[in-house]
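Entry 14. Structure prediction run on the chain below.
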Amino acid sequence: MRDLPQMLKVYAHARELMARNGNPTQWGNTFPRESVVRDDIANQRTMLLVDMKDGHERILAQFALCPGEDPTYARIDGAWLDDDTYVTIHRIASSGLVRHAARDCITWALKHYGNVRADTHPNNKAMQHVLETSGFARCGLIQLLDRPTDTTRIAYQRHEW
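Output returned:
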């Protein structure tokens, strides 16, 4: 919980970057809400990529790692690679301090869990590039369950066999 203020700054930075790069609606001005970030921390879903500089820890990137079946992924216009157990990466954001931080988070998740799913907004070309160059397959389209508008997302999966 001590990292919460910095995590909120990282998400604010990510929202600004997405808006500047043609994706102003995926997270708008408020997502992820502080209550969601607190819930991720409380339920031990928060993953931080950190380093040390001048004796101080810095958050380079963060994401929620969600084990178990994701209800949003139950219906897909397309097909998942398999029905095996998986983890989902949600709410990934880079602080902008180093290059490839999001990719490093994804690499870590694949190394530790093997079967990983994720989704992103059709306008989020940067995340699509990161997922596709990390070996993820574009599986189809899903609809978010927790938002009233702008809910279509591109679904991805990578399974280390």
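The domain at 3-159 is CATH 3.40.630.30 (Aminopeptidase).
Filed with the rest of this week's runs.
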